[in-house]
Automatic annotation (TrEMBL):
NAD-dependent epimerase/dehydratase domain span: 19-223
Matching InterPro entries: Epimerase_deHydtase, NAD(P)-bd_dom_sf, NAD(P)-dependent_oxidoreduct
Pfam family, one: Epimerase
Protein name as annotated: NAD-dependent epimerase/dehydratase family protein
Length: 297
């Protein structure tokens, strides 16, 4: 349990990677926490300061700039992605080394990805499913998870791993599902289609806050809503909701000709996430329990 807010001293939260989700978290906690936000971009300093954070300049790709983070925060929210290449997450490794230089945080929450599970062939899975990442991107996330579990045990940090699927919100840059439909991007035909999982950006922010307070040590959580939907059906529903043409349906063989390797990687994994830990251990009541409700908002 983190220290309670008092008039004399508020607990300090360090957000590493304060993008869209980090700013949503900041709005939720600004009245109860003093928030520090690590950024490598000087031009973001005014934006972060206006949002209520104290900006700190530092670069996860240059560990020499991270030493100042040691001993600053009661809790850390790690939302930064791993490097774009390789099988390991050197950014998380450098962050751990910096935080461990002095008295470390009591709690650390990391936003990982459900890609660490690999392809589950449509099975319903919980957090006990063995990790089997099929992409370098997934393996980098699995590496970060392993490093953070180790750090939690070694330094006594209460580390929570949030395994996050597709993040959406109509006001989220890069997360508005209408954009894909408007571009005319195709989806797989029904017999080739895969299950997909989602979480509204506001509910993800609320899950981050819940994990800071109630996450169990070295524990993973599937941060997904309660939808059970295949990808093509999902984008059909988006099109219908906003009066857009439904996406064209293509075969897997046609997708291999039309889509990039990155796009194909999302079509090669199918799983249905169980979220009981999120709902019961973190005691989170989803504001948008299905994508239909999130789009309706």
């Amino acid at each position: 349990m983190l220290p309670k807010t008092t008039r004399a001293k508020r607990p300090v939260l360090l957000i590493v990677g304060c993008g869209d989700v980090g700013l949503r978290v900041l709005r939720l906690v600004a009245s109860r926490w003093r928030v520090l936000a690590l950024t490598s971009s000087p031009h973001r300093v005014p934006e972060l300061r206006a949002a209520g954070a104290t900006p700190l300049l530092g670069n996860l790709d240059d560990p020499r700039t991270l030493a100042r983070l040691a001993g600053l925060a009661d809790a850390v929210l790690h939302l930064a992605p791993p490097p774009h290449v390789g099988e390991r997450d050197a950014r998380t490794a450098g962050l751990i080394r910096a935080l461990a230089l002095r008295s470390g945080p009591r709690a650390l929450v990391y936003a990982s990805t459900t890609g660490v599970y690999g392809d589950c062939q449509g099975a319903c899975i919980d957090e006990t499913r063995p990790l089997a990442p099929a992409t370098a991107r997934g393996r980098r996330r699995a590496d970060a998870e392993a490093r953070l579990r180790w750090a939690g045990r070694a330094f006594g940090w209460r580390t929570s791993l949030l395994r996050v699927p597709g993040i959406y919100a109509l006001d989220r840059e890069g997360g508005d599902p209408r954009e894909r439909v408007r571009r005319g991007a195709p989806v797989l035909r029904a017999e080739d289609d895969v299950y997909t999982n989602h979480i509204h950006a506001d509910d993800l922010a609320r899950a981050c806050v819940a994990a800071l307070h109630r996450g169990r040590p070295q524990r993973a959580y599937n941060v997904s809503d309660c939808s059970v939907v295949k990808m093509g059906d999902h984008f059909d529903a988006v099109a219908d909701r906003f009066g857009l043409p439904r996406p064209r349906r293509i075969s897997r063989a046609e997708a291999a000709q039309e889509m990039s390797p990155m796009q194909l990687s999302f079509l090669s994994e199918s799983r249905r996430l169980m979220n009981q830990r999120l709902l019961h251990e973190l005691r989170l009541t989803l504001r948008y329990p299905t994508v239909a409700e999130g789009l309706g908002a």
